[in-house]
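Box 3.1 A note on notation
Throughout this textbook, protein chains are presented in two layers. The first layer is the amino acid sequence; the second is a token string describing backbone geometry. Keep the layers aligned when reading.
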Amino acid sequence: MTKYETVIGLEFHAELKTQSKIFCGCPTSFSNEPNINICPGCLGLPGALPALNKRVVELAVKAGLALNCAIQPYSKFDRKNYFYPDLPAGYQTTQLPLPICRNGHIMITDSDGNLKKVRINRIHIEEDAGKLVHSGESISGSRYSLPDYNRSSMPLIEIVTEPDLSSADEAKQFAEKLKLILEYAEVSDVKMEQGSLRCDVNISLRPQGQKEFGVRSEIKNLNSFRAVQRAILFEQERHTFMLKNGEPLYQETRLWNEAEGRTRAMRTKEDAQDYRYFPEPNVPAVIVDEAWIKQIAAELPELPDARLERLQKEFGLSGYDSAQLVANPLLAYYFDEVTPLFNEAKTVTNWLIGDVLRLLNSLDDELESIPIAAQDFAYLLTELKKGAINNKSAKEVLEIIFMEGGKPENIIKDKGFAQISDSVLLEDAIRNIINKNAGAANDYRNGKMQALGFLVGQVMKETKGQANPGLVKELLEQSFKSE
């Protein structure tokens, strides 16, 4: 039986975080109302000339540096010619032979747990096309489609890997890490649900040991990591079946249907010559000198791998805890705000990747900051450590702040969450519980240690959860010893 190996290359389109579009002054804000962020330039009307947005170049260079690329001192723009309703000018302004970044890489972990370098062939700048809004759920099931040009001329970078990936898991891991790097570098908001980050998969199969690539399929515009993984697995099965049965494979572009869990053919895959590229006459070449590169490099924040290493070395966090924090920039930045105020990194981490993350996930709105100020969170953890409140009350205070706002000290006072640590008050409650639960008390006297836990629970119930459980246990033991 012939065994086949999978060869995968990925292409990502990332919208850049600029205030205006790449060649005009139209805003880049996301809108569900069609055709409001447009002008003659966006619409490709005759006489409208492009003016390159300097910030687009800076962010492209920043992305290249974050992805270990060599920044090209000279790059230029080209016209990619094709006709489609979402491309009003009849061509897309992009970069072909002279892109702004080359020869980068990202490190991932392969199936054997070893580090694997995935090479990035190039990063180039281009403008986005518009969007077709279909009357049905997809283009194939629609009676008509209407063009929305809000996205037209949005600034993009396209990131193209070498065919170094060999499994769906590797591809998903690479995509997740790339998204995280772009987010930390503040290059793109990478909101896949809004189309800010889109992925195309190029996949082929070949007999093991063969150097030549097999026939390639391209799967377009995947907007989730789950879709990337599932589409690759489906194509692996489809290619394997056709190869084993001697059926012909064609170089083609395919679309992923999430509901059906399968791809379908869209069109025969074009080659570069089909687009009749030629130099863009209206946009000058881009010159990036060393001084500008150094200035942009100085703006780069701490990236995921460096942060992961720092959390383990500086704070002694485990690899798992560090990875959980780094995977969510909101949590990672908040951790750095809280730890100088409450210097117990493990406790802070446990709360962040536990209750704080749970509450963040429960909110529908996309938050740009955590709803409790760092000093208030540190205060809450300090009160818990002192025994002024118990763990259950601390969780309730946190939830109230997330949902309603407020200061923790006021909520603790108004809701009566302060923990009872007065021995005299607790001794009265303990005597009452021992009298009510004579059977459990006798069990403990006869050596059944689990009965003590039951009695502690009853005292906590009696005090509505406000008693200090450690002190309750201690006072119960003393009470039995003094009999």
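The mean pLDDT is 91. The chain has 15 helices and 16 strands.
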